[in-house]
Structures
1.
Amino acid sequence: MKEVIENIKKFRELKNITREELADRLEMSLSGYSKLERGEVELSVSKLYRISEILEVSVSQILDFDASQIFTMTNNQNAFGYIREQHNAYNDLYKDKYIKMLEAEVERLRNEQK
């Protein structure tokens, strides 16, 4: 159960929700919620489901949360973002060259008509 409580805390922090906000939404006192988060009181199944709704995650995500997956996803997104930026830069370069080629062709055709 200690791991589940730790996972709730991690999700709460990832979502930038304070203990006060979560306690309020659970209709609990701050001290009551703090005791829950410290593992001093038992977490009921109904409270677990309510917490999952508030945090917008499934109960199974809370039960099986692995923080390393978050960092892996973030790193992958950063890598894909870098690749996307490089691809966009390549496309911009290609577009510029294509525009110059078309301008040259327009100029050539104008000169032929004279």
2.
Amino acid sequence: MQKYHLISLGCQMNLSDTERVKTVLHELGFEPTENEMEASILGVIACSVRQKAIDKVYSRIAKWNKLKNRKNLLTFVSGCILPADNERFIKLFDLVFPMSELPQLPDMIRQYGIATPASLQQSSDSLVVKKPKAKVREGVGFLLEPVKTPQKPTAPKLNPGKDIDEFWHVEPTYTSEFEAFIPIQNGCDKFCTFCAVPYTRGREVSRPSQEILDELAMLVNKGYKSITLLGQNVNSYGLDKRGDEISFAELLRRVGEFGLKSGKKFWVYFTSPHPRDMTDEVIEVIAQYDCLAKQIHLPVQSGDDKVLMRMNRKHAMDKYRHIVHTIRTLIPQATLFTDIIVGFTGESDEQFENTRKAMEEFKYNMAYIAQYSVRPGAASSRWEDDVPKEVKKQRYHILTEELTKHSFVYNEQLVGKTLEVLVRGNDRKAGFLTGYTEGKLVIRFGSNDENLIGQIVEVKVESASTLSLEGSLVMVNQMAG
């Protein structure tokens, strides 16, 4: 049996995309393998948003191309790819395509001259035996391919937002039996100056709401406990189809109504929203329904209005502050997560201090802090990256300390309380299982019962640290099924 090996880099959207790639390869008859040496197809779901992720792609393809001296294999790359990276990848990978063209991947593979396991079940009259190309180690074998095999095709020109509806119709191969992603929207129209997403995924396109709700119902009926609605800007859902599609608040309301009728215990999350499009109505709906998880990821990026203007975030801190106040008022139990960039072009000590003060004010439970790096194609790439690396590192550590200080105070207040926990697997500490609360706080508890994995249980918190909790098992939630 021929096998494939996939590497997914970047955000949750790329992980979700990878699940659909797996489906296409499975339908061709390939099986997954964790061992690259066993695979005849090697693929990367890339991320041009972070330089470190792109560096990993170049490192891996160099290794894979050396493997071609010893065996027949095909390499491909897709995902979030900037035009500049795309041009380089064309010279390094056998296939380069936008994720919206995933449904055409089987044809691309066949045209390249790789016979799929499924095609080998066809009449042998349509196949010929072809010796491998030069520099193939003796004894590797022969490659079966269709008789009329064209020359290696050039990579299609990337048009990331084109035909995304067809991509959504590919049923994902879920990597978990209790956690799942549902893409609801693709692309972004905000054009933040630091961000590459509009150039890698195109403009905003909303998925039909009925498809989203149908997929949600299917997952819940199969026993999934944690479902995340995905998009580059989820709370702008429906704005590209005004009059023809519902709003994000209404989508959440319908999810909530389904939750009431289902009688099942599950949590629905969403990421990532933009403060400009976050309405009071969205927060009101979350407060109303139990299945809408009381955890909100609200990227702030900077706590300084002038930096936000240079970032083209299209909102000021007063708007952000209003959103947080509304969350604290209507959903006081909600945890708050955020994204922050330190060392953005032109960020002064005073402007950074405003960001630190924002962290002190909002007391985030988790913050994903990134040191600014230039992304080719993004508007800020034309500006001088004038904040030294040493300063970026220092600011990163200052904010990290600020985060841990406030998260520890919050976690300490949970000691003695009993919380619902979705058990995700074995902890690194022997004899313990680990999971997360509805607010996505990591917690572990003593147990060797692996049957609890994938269930929602009750755990009494006994101790707290900066970013995690520890407790003891109380009971399994009776609604977990």
3.
Amino acid sequence: MQQLIRMAAEIGPLAIFLITYNRTDLQTAIISLMITAPIGVVLYWFVEKKWPFMLLLGAAMVLIFGAASSYFENNDIFKMKPTFAYILFTALLGGGLLFGKNFIKLLLGSSLTLREPGWRYLAIAWAVFFLLMAGLNEFVWRNFSEDFWVKFKVIGFISITLVFGLALTPIILKYKVDEEES
């Protein structure tokens, strides 16, 4: 039950965004996301008793870009949100490494035990991935229809991210700390 609630907190707002868009328009869908994203954060906290950094950051960006998009009546502002989010993640990961902090390790260190080179490879891989995703978002929203962008944002980006995460499995397995080592 706890896992189901956590998944609903993470994916629910995007699903509601997509359903709302399919029944109304982008501006209404943005408002629905602005309402449900913070609810998802609180729901996650209720189950896990800790604040989910990535969901919290995502919800904050949804509120900022959603409010700006509504205020200026310009949906393109919201379409740029993923670009800024991905660039921010790239900067956090890359900048963290430059200053001796591995934010991937800070986020996942409680659930995954790797040797240091593995953490470094993961941080670099995710930083490059997020940079490429920023470029992909820019390409898609500027060259395709709004309808295509919305569906690609929800279904395409999630799918690509899952495939990329799975593609990192060999690195995780190679650098995973065995029970004997720990």
